[in-house]
What does this fold into?
Amino acid sequence: MIVVMKSGASAKQIASVITRIEEDGYAAHLSEGDHHTIIGVVGESPTPLVEDNYATMDNVDKVVRISEPYKLASRTFHPLDTQVPLNGCKMGSEKVLTIAGPCSVESREQIIEIACAVKEAGATALRGGAFKPRTSPYSFQGHGEEGLKWLAEAREVTGLPIVTELMDPALVDMVTEYADVIQIGARNMQNFTLLNAVGKSQHSVLLKRGMSSTVKDLLMAAEYVLSHGNTRVMLCERGIRTFETATRNTSDINAIPVLKQLTHLPVVFDPSHATGKWEYVESLSLAAVAAGADGLIIEVHPEPDKAMSDGRQSLKPEKFAELVTKVRRVAEAVGRKA
Amino acid sequence: MIVVMKSGASAKQIASVITRIEEDGYAAHLSEGDHHTIIGVVGESPTPLVEDNYATMDNVDKVVRISEPYKLASRTFHPLDTQVPLNGCKMGSEKVLTIAGPCSVESREQIIEIACAVKEAGATALRGGAFKPRTSPYSFQGHGEEGLKWLAEAREVTGLPIVTELMDPALVDMVTEYADVIQIGARNMQNFTLLNAVGKSQHSVLLKRGMSSTVKDLLMAAEYVLSHGNTRVMLCERGIRTFETATRNTSDINAIPVLKQLTHLPVVFDPSHATGKWEYVESLSLAAVAAGADGLIIEVHPEPDKAMSDGRQSLKPEKFAELVTKVRRVAEAVGRKA
Amino acid sequence: MIVVMKSGASAKQIASVITRIEEDGYAAHLSEGDHHTIIGVVGESPTPLVEDNYATMDNVDKVVRISEPYKLASRTFHPLDTQVPLNGCKMGSEKVLTIAGPCSVESREQIIEIACAVKEAGATALRGGAFKPRTSPYSFQGHGEEGLKWLAEAREVTGLPIVTELMDPALVDMVTEYADVIQIGARNMQNFTLLNAVGKSQHSVLLKRGMSSTVKDLLMAAEYVLSHGNTRVMLCERGIRTFETATRNTSDINAIPVLKQLTHLPVVFDPSHATGKWEYVESLSLAAVAAGADGLIIEVHPEPDKAMSDGRQSLKPEKFAELVTKVRRVAEAVGRKA
Amino acid sequence: MIVVMKSGASAKQIASVITRIEEDGYAAHLSEGDHHTIIGVVGESPTPLVEDNYATMDNVDKVVRISEPYKLASRTFHPLDTQVPLNGCKMGSEKVLTIAGPCSVESREQIIEIACAVKEAGATALRGGAFKPRTSPYSFQGHGEEGLKWLAEAREVTGLPIVTELMDPALVDMVTEYADVIQIGARNMQNFTLLNAVGKSQHSVLLKRGMSSTVKDLLMAAEYVLSHGNTRVMLCERGIRTFETATRNTSDINAIPVLKQLTHLPVVFDPSHATGKWEYVESLSLAAVAAGADGLIIEVHPEPDKAMSDGRQSLKPEKFAELVTKVRRVAEAVGRKA
It folds into this structure.
């Protein structure tokens, strides 16, 4: 940490900061400039450095953090890529994996039909929501446990592992009984109670970035899960909220190479939510793979104009099959497989 | 709802949309322009209109919603101001109320000391967190139930009602046992499991706006609570996330008159989080009251450089007392009391 | 400036940075931590420090700027408030001044009628655009020099000084011939050719913040004008672009105390553009004054539904008169006049 | 256009809107719902519809625009792709073209050296700034006309056409004398004086998107140039400003397929500004090509740590050469050439 003093700081104020640093168990290195005095904080101590406490001291101009606040998620401490097993493959390996399925599980027939279609097209796993976080209390909220059972049936028929969302920490046992991967939705990325619950479960997790969360916030959320010894964490970029209204969200493709640099965890991209319109899903899927994404998660529905949710951004199965073929070509062009 | 067809839409495509409207139980009104055909959807039906389904039909250009998706929160259907009782006063009445206290409950002594100080300064209620949502799993997470007990003691000493955050739906009974008002934090504004839990509790709720939530999202979140028959809902603007980094968040003061127009629920402003720096808290408190806020919630700490959280944005008690005096003057200038 | 090395930086890489610092004419202070080495750059040199050059050196983690990049605009170097003369008053003094008038000068009659109305209501200056920056080339672009002449006539009739926008650096002589204050619009805040032209003119300037400019960007734009020795600069917050669509822009009221802290220049607030809807203009005007704004600039039109531009956000003269009365009360409540 | 009345609108208020529509020369189609009356505005008239005027009428809830405000830029009216000639190739054709060079022209030797290097690597055109828009008045502002002369020399040596920025409308003749393509920078995207000047020049234009401009704003800016009969317009996505600080800007890759759908103009992507860090430039270049970009514009400098501007985001020539090879592979994977 570095403490920068304001230009008018007195010797006494500087001394107070140094005393505080030493009380916290660290050493202070002083650099006196013509206008500003800079105090470097070095060493190790059991007392965590609380930047806010220093920032509020008299005539402190600013406090600059040096080391990243995440440790278990950091590539600095874990240089090798983490790979999360999925259906005999590994997310985070050479092969780009695709998770596909409807936004909501609508019926037994629907989910089995889609599961068969996405499997045939080449998907590695099946997505589908039994518990749906909806902006409106009047919208369809999902079929709950019955939906989970239909998902399990679809897995039995196709062999595809199930990725499904958990919203309620009290239901972690129920959902893990049916699901292979627990999805934490964007709106719950900083629901720390939920993160602790899935951390403890030791189940594979697909952690979606909150719509206004920074990359650093996402890594801190992952750190919650990792801090329970659960290393099966896949990060998912799904678009952020900006001023642009031409698309539902703004795909932050920059985040893909940024995350690959900062963390060892696999990075999945969700072009359906990141654009909100099915006609842009293909372009963005290819872009994400070209940028280095390890996987894709895509909404597929045979009748988007009848879908109970997210019809506007769902691909029909035949479009999805075309997409998988194109993804394969781009993956190969950047030295990977799909 | 209005469906706008693309300029090249065929008669058959238009007919399909009309058929769908009628199947859903509504009537279709056609306006044919030179370039665009517009289809108005009118009437009532038990089938909810899912905009996405229409938006995905062939040659539909866009779908425009007419009526607001919130009903119980809407001023259209409830023209009179809702007032939430607080310590013998009412939030949403002529009098501007102030809730004050530390970010975290740190010890029995600390919370009692602060409670006495803010009471003397004129606060109506005491805030303080026993369960803290922290970005980092390594930061102080709050004292839990012990913290709630200290809050209850502070209430006994001062008579101030307690406003404290609930993060875990499983703890709703525990927290409501001690708290007078349950705070839903910004990160949990769309934690629908939690909203349902506090809705059912019938306890007073202070619902903070998510940092990237629109005003409409906030009203939809309130609708979740209201839909359980719990009308004791106070909305809280606490700053939104933008590109500006000079302050922790950007205070959306516009939201105050917008909310007063759209909803009958009281509107509270939190200048501490909205600015992130104590030196701006006074200016923004006065601004919010001038703009029509019904209340303020402000972080106060006697030793900000020792605070376990949010020291940078906490006022010392004497500054808080000055602030209350100034708030009173501005409140009177706009025809209110404080 | 501080250079933070990555944890793996070699002694040779650190030495390269130090050599570079010395070549640039500065001294390097080294703080070696367990994980990170920090190099403080101190001293004075004619060679400007280009952060990017250091940031791109091997194993440099980040470069942190210490001193603000603006000097003439900075309160550190000019602690006393700058006051800009306006109609016998001073913007930046105890008295809160109001500039009012239509978005566009539409006709001789219109501008004289409005000038009389706003003068009677208590405005200090008249605004009105003769050159209009319009998003669409097909929208009304202003009456040009004829509009300026009508403004001059309105000044003759009412005595109100004229605030009008300049878009073309080639027209600086023409516009300064008629105008008392040159307005630089939000879209031109970083039109450096224009900033240099008005800087050289030595004319009073109202510099509007760009809709995605930070407070720092705004101060750097002011620095361009100030660097020509022109100190008659008024800054104007007019709302920033965010994800919120309930209002045209988001009023950044935080920017008012932030600017008052960082700079000695007067700060004006424009509630008309900052909200985009006339019904919120009063609330935001009062909020801005409560937060410490030195002045307001407000759009007024007798027939908003006939206005050639910005009708949606224009107050009728009688509403404006009410507003001025209320502004006066709030100004007094915060120890000022209006 | 559609006018939606509030639920309480009276018959008289509805009649006023209809009268106004008819006065403006259009026909009104009425759809009366249970809660809302919707008025469709159809037909043609020489009087442009000013939405704001209707929005401000009594009990109007909202006004919805139907047709896009841009015409010459719209694919609806010009379905075929526009191709802009560049060095014997065409931007907007099957072949993905790359423009490369330094941020600033620093010296005769520098620009010739880089021109040779990027030519050898496969670039189609040379970029380099002689007039630099800098946030600070104290930063290097470019070598001006001398820089243009060095660019012309570099063209003579390599045959590469020149892309360079114009900031001052008064210099349009000077810059077009040397440049093959005039670049309009992000900060000047809504400098309408400048857009009119380059429109009239009939010179090829590379129009960069403003950092807080929507896709629609960009198309309206292009419309200014096109309205002068100048159809040689290339659009350039260069990142937008968001809350994320891990990168300099956020690449809006969504904008690529959105623009290809809405307009016939070619779309270029600038990964250097869109990320701000050279290590992410390759990933984003490949992503943009996979998403359908017609071209790339990339900053290249042999000694980034000596660059007078943008060193942090500049590729060394050998990295650029590798990038061109990879771009070719991805282009082929999506059915194009490079």
Q: What stands out?
A: Chain A touches chain B through 48 residues (CB under 8 Å). DSSP finds eleven helices and 14 strands in chain A.
